[in-house]
Amino acid sequence: MSGAEESVFDVYRDRVERPLYRLFTEYGTREWRWLVLGMTANVIARAASLLPPVVLGAAIDSAFDGDAPYSLPLIPASLLPTAAPDPVQFRFSAAVIVGAFVVTAVLTWVYGVAANNFAHSVMHAVRTDSYAKMQDLDMWFFDDKQTGEVMSVLNNDATNLERFLDDALQNSVRIGVMLLGIGVVLFLENAQLAFLTLVAVPAMVGFTYWFMKAVEPRYAAQREAVADLNTRLENALGGIQLVKTSGTEEYETGRVRRTSHAYYRKTLAMLRLNYIYRPGMELLAGVSFAVTFVVGGLWLIDGTAPGPLTGELSSGAFVTFILLSQRFVTPLSEVSNIVSQYENAKASCERVFGLQDIPRRVTDEPGAIELDDVDGAVEYDDVSFRYAQGDPDAAGGDADGGHPVPDSANLILDGIDFSVEPGETVALVGPTGAGKSTLLKLLLRLYDVDEGAVRIDGHDVREVTARSLRRSIGYVSQDTVLFDGTVAENIRYGRFDVDVARGDGGDGDDEVHEDIVEAAEAAEAHEFITNLPDGYGTGIGERGVKLSGGQRQRLSIARTVLQDPDILVLDEATSAVDTETEMLIQRSLDRLAADRTTFLIAHRLSTVKDADEILVLEGGEVVERGGHEELLEADGLYAKLWGVQAGEIESLPEEFVERARRRQAETVLSTEDGE
Q: What's the rounded Cα separation, in Å, for the pair 62 and 284?
């Protein structure tokens, strides 16, 4: 991805340093008890698993052949049976071997439980912290970030980390203990033969280093391909109705096929290195075993040390070498799996912390006050605003929370200046892209102004807590958002102090909390709700797919009614309903807006003609203001728009059309809802 195409997420992901170290310091330390328990049990279990071959070798030389005194590495002779041959030595050997297997089994179970608790606890913390961070990010992040990639971080990447902590980490310890333990035992048994057995280790280390360097960028590319595939699938499934009504199933299948094939190619590019590394490691480990077998076998058969080697080699020692060198092969062949999991986890870790490191601009200032007892006076004081895009360190921003704005960004709003008295209704009208929705998002502080100030009751919205600010404002947009759940649960969303039901019963209408019913009645929704199969307890499906557009909009309005805000924002609130339903909803909205400051955005000018003041926006500026009749008399843009909608003129004059085209060509990409 080129620098010009990089998103904010990509920039911060590339800046993450020592991601796995950070994972342990920030998350692993929270669960250190499980980690220590698992590691300790793992070490002891692996050490115990090395005892049987060593004891078997001692038994062969002493208890069976009677050629040598019974001895074990690092164990004082006073603790061992010394008479040879002696049934006591055999029984002792058998007891140690059985005991070693029991200890290995029990402690393997302990470290498995501990490792799983550690890994899943960390994964849970990473996922929930990343989601909380994502929820906390400013809207400019979501303007630039695709949902599928964020889902990939929360799901795929968190799962990769769990696998690494559960499997790769514990296996690394197991292999480390096995290799160190085997090396120590072999050197204690016969240092010369041990040197030949372990001579391949430096080559394996160098081979592994090469593999890690070569495979790292390929794992990062694969993770990006996963995110792209998730995004493509999410978009295709989210727009399934459009796909079907457009007959474009084959086209969408082709797009998914191409994205999936890109993932396939990048996965194969990573696997090709594994196809070289894994057989190579097995070959080196096999050579090590073969050298041990050939040299040790000749030494034992001839009775003299071959070549430059000196000393003697007993049958028991040779058996120990054969058994342990075979165990030496398997761990080394598993290193490739660990390296793969390590690189995969590293790439995922960079994405997780890249998300978590993205700064916020819209934050509560130190000493921010709670906005209580709102009267509803609103003032826009010479407000200008640009949408954020590009590198956070570009002009207008900084890495510590600045607003990413490139030099080429054009103003979306320029010099907006007006005030609203408590209880007044102000309508915003104008062409698509004029800045109407953006203007009101600044009131909600979804973005911060670049210049000027927005005030409520004399308080700059940047000087009050965002939570209290947004609690005082009810927002109904043209894009209705509902969650999978019941009708009642969606109406009371945000007012969790209101129980869904009055009593202990189910979700029947007679048990629904009266406040929810009253809100639905005020939004002209109660009648259609009671006709649903389970009334207020009816499940509406993901995004409310089981309801019509008008029904979804009325639930959204009911939710705002229940919120009982001090200031009301209606962004094309009746755009998804028919004329008859619009009349009913408009009546309820009039009641709702009667005693509170209301902002109304509408392209259908008949819904705004009774507003106390109408602001006409064009090109991010207020070009006209006044009442309905006053604006008609002025014969400006509003009058022309009214004439077109009323059928008095067929179309806008060419000067307005050309000006709109020019403005659209100059405007940078924005995310205004419906504009």
A: 34
